[in-house]
Design brief:
Layout lengths: L2 H13 L4 H4 L2 H20 L6 H13 L2 E2 H8 L3 H13 L3 E6 L2 E9 L1 H21 L5 H16 L3 H16 L13
Antiparallel strand pairs: 1-3, 2-3
Helix pairs in contact: 3-7, 4-7, 5-6, 5-9, 8-9
C-alpha cells in the first residue's frame, strides 16, 4: 500500500470516530479487528447452533482428525475444565464422541461423528462466506500477506510467539497428559 493510500485509510478511520493516536497503534488495530472478526464469525455460525469454541474444535477435528482430549486445550487455548465442558456440550449434540486412545488406555481421543462432520463442513462454508465479506476490501494478495504476517508472528521467535508457546505449554502440562505421540516417562 502506498504512503498516500495508507494516509487516506487512516483519515477515513479518523473521520469514522477512531482517534488518530490509536489508529496508528498496531495493538489497537489488531485487537479491534479481533473483536470484530470474532463477532462476525459467531454471527455466521449462530444459525447452526454453534459458538466460536465449538466451531474451532469441529474445524480442528475436520482438518486434523481425532485429537487427544488433553491436546485440545493447548490447541484452542483453554484449560482442562473448559475442554471437558466444551466436549460434553458438543458430544450431547451428537457431533463428537470420545474413544479410548489405543496408545494410552487412560486417555481419550475426540472423534467427529458423521453428524459432526456435516456440521463442521457447513460451519466452514458459513465462515468462508463471512470471511470473504470481511476481507472483501483486500486483494487476494493483501489477504494472503495478512495471513502470512499474522502466522509469522505466531511462529517466529519473539514476544508474541513466545507468549503463545508458554500458554500452550502451560495448558498442555495442566492437561495432565503428554501431547499425542509422546509418552510421559514413568517414575
Amino acid at each position: 500500500m502506498t504512503q498516500r493510500r495508507t494516509q487516506e485509510v487512516r483519515d477515513r478511520c479518523c473521520a469514522e470516530g477512531y482517534p488518530e493516536a490509536l489508529i496508528t497503534c498496531p495493538d489497537f488495530v489488531l485487537s479491534t479487528l479481533a473483536v470484530s472478526v470474532t463477532h462476525l464469525v459467531e454471527t455466521a455460525i449462530e444459525p447452526l447452533g454453534l459458538r466460536m469454541r465449538h466451531y474451532r474444535l469441529l474445524r480442528m477435528l475436520l482438518g486434523s482428525g481425532p485429537q487427544r482430549q488433553s491436546a485440545v486445550g493447548a490447541a484452542l487455548g483453554i484449560d482442562r475444565t473448559s475442554v471437558v465442558a466444551l466436549i460434553d456440550e458438543i458430544e450431547a449434540g451428537g457431533l463428537v464422541r470420545r474413544e479410548r486412545d489405543p496408545e494410552d488406555r487412560r486417555a481419550y481421543v475426540v472423534v467427529l461423528t458423521a453428524k459432526g462432520r456435516r456440521a463442521a463442513q457447513r460451519a466452514v462454508e458459513s465462515v468462508s462466506v463471512a470471511e470473504a465479506a470481511m476481507f472483501g476490501p483486500l486483494t487476494v494478495t493483501e489477504k494472503n500477506n495478512l495471513q502470512n504476517l499474522a502466522t509469522r508472528l505466531l511462529a517466529e521467535r519473539g514476544p508474541i510467539a513466545d507468549r503463545h508457546r508458554e500458554e500452550s505449554l502451560s495448558l498442555r502440562e495442566r492437561g495432565s497428559a503428554p501431547p499425542r505421540g509422546r509418552r510421559r516417562p514413568r517414575g
